[in-house]
Amino acid sequence: MSQKRWVVGVDVGGTFTDLFVLDEQTGTARIVKVPSTRGEEARGFMNGIQKISEDGSASGVASIVHGTTVGTNALLERKVARTGIITTRGFRDVLEMRRRDRPQTWGLRGSFTPIVPRALRLEVDERVLADGHIHTPVNIDQVKAQAQALLDAGCEAVCVFFINAYANMANEQAAVAAVRAMWPNPHVTAASEVLPEIREFERCSTATLNAALQPVVGSYLTRLESDLRGQGFDGELLIVQSNGGVMSRQTACDVPVRTALSGPAAGVMACAAIARAAGFPNVMTGDMGGTSFDVSLVAKGEAALAAQTSIEFGLVVRSPMIQIETIGAGGGSIASVDASGMLQVGPESAGSVPGPACYDRGNTRPTVTDANVLLGRIAADRPLGGGLLQAMRADLSEKAIQTHVAEPLGLSTMEAAEAILTVANAKMAGAVRVVSIEKGHDPRQFAYMPFGGGGGLHVCAMMREVGVATGIVPRYPGVTSALGCVMADMRHDAVQTLNQALSDVNFKDVVARIDKLAEACQTRLDSAGVRFVAVDENIALDMLFTGQTHTLQVNVQRAQLSAEGLRLAFTEAYQHAFGRVLEGPVIRVMNLRYARIGRRPKFDLSVLAPVGAGSTQPLGVQRVYHQGQWWDAQRYARLELPVGAQVKGPAILEQADTTVWLEPKFVAKVDAMGNLLVTAQP
Prior knowledge:
By secondary structure, this protein is α+β, with helices and mostly antiparallel strands. It is built from 16 helices and 33 strands. Strand 13 (283-288) and strand 14 (293-299) form a beta hairpin.
């Protein structure tokens, strides 16, 4: 097919690889779901692409937007490239010193293994002072010798990290140029290029992780693009960033550390757009997949951004990213009774291989999915995944729960299954409270939007646990992250440290810096070859009172870039955040942050809505065990329900990518975009 018609979003999860296919010619959308191939993610990706067209070709695909967890998994499993560091003499141990933190705050023991061993962290003579003055010029001969030593030690990648390079990059840039001239591949990272920001540990950690990921992510994306070209694809391959925007494949290869939360971020952006269109600017999202439960908060239509995150203890990435709380509570999370006799759910997961016990692939321990199958909320003869499994074995679920939970706790099998779900729901509700109550938000003022393959099964329970009035189940919950890939704008963030008192700031210099950052970010946008309907910019300054250690991000417009304009903006933001403004201390401007956003053409979410009269007729009755008794739940084909249709619980709403369990005393209504709006009956 020569004519380009499809825009495809691809999200590779731990269990399934999801594709959302938008046909720009007809204005229709459909989903494709295939098993993930852990360790060979590209194979599962290509299996999905081949299912788009009848002939298996990708020639009709205009663009592909990919949310990937390859980088995150590589860090978690420590399967990264052998990496070296060249740093300022006396600073080779920055990675281990961290922030004088510990894996367990109150523990007497703990251990941490840096991503780069000490023997591969080498020093050279150079020194830049905090004010930017060069105290000691870099010794290039030493740099070359240390680079050769790292090559001799088998290093595939290298990070050049000099202290205070954020204030003056001259020494670091000279060293990087020398290393790149002799390094046999492009995997040379300059810390000041990745993060020209004050705080040596965060800068070193982010840059080092970037270097360690370059060969892993770069080879994956390069191989993927090559496979796509072999299938006839000649459009643009775009990658979702942790900040919810997208970037070109080349940019992702250059700064792979920005993909740390790529997949979950896409889902949050989709939820934000769906909720805004449905009239709910405030929404909490819960992505329940096979392995994890990811929670985020969207306030006033905008997802919350965090300045940094930790992939695990000590592996800190400082880069703007969607604020997401992750716990091990997915459909594949294993239930067990610990030595103290307490029922635990997760974080260990059965994943897709071997999967829950009911998959009959060798796992004999019970999972959340097994509990849902045994309780009748998932029909064993009609499993999720669009026919990936012909049937599931409820008898194996029962055996696993009986052996590992019911007998140790002295419960009946059904009581044990409900107990598993009670614990899982409590864990998920706890994660929701972390992003809401602990951040100063009242959950009652938010809607709750579950997505992922398992989210719909727990929507009513989560509403009860958290106190939310409305639940929003999107049209295709199981592929919401893939939908987010299609919807995401292209975004590039940049930062520079100023570290000046407000009264000393040269605002002509600040504007010049902004213009330079805008030009660099625009170059990145242009390199992707993507059409934008508009280009926006966000300017923010990290500010604080002298003597404070933590900054407050203050969003400003160019017209506010004056001493008085920033003072007013800072005091207003400070008052909002802390309830009062300090009198007397000098205001300082620490960092300048800039984001340039290329707005991609949007499609009307109403294309997801059901068309025609549909059907409100039940498909039959399904027996469901709930709160200690059996109920006759009406079964419905969820995608056949027309706009305006109402369904009262108890009910089971089925579709290929998920099942929605509507508890008694709850009602669901189909809105104009095909979402299910769930509310409790009085």
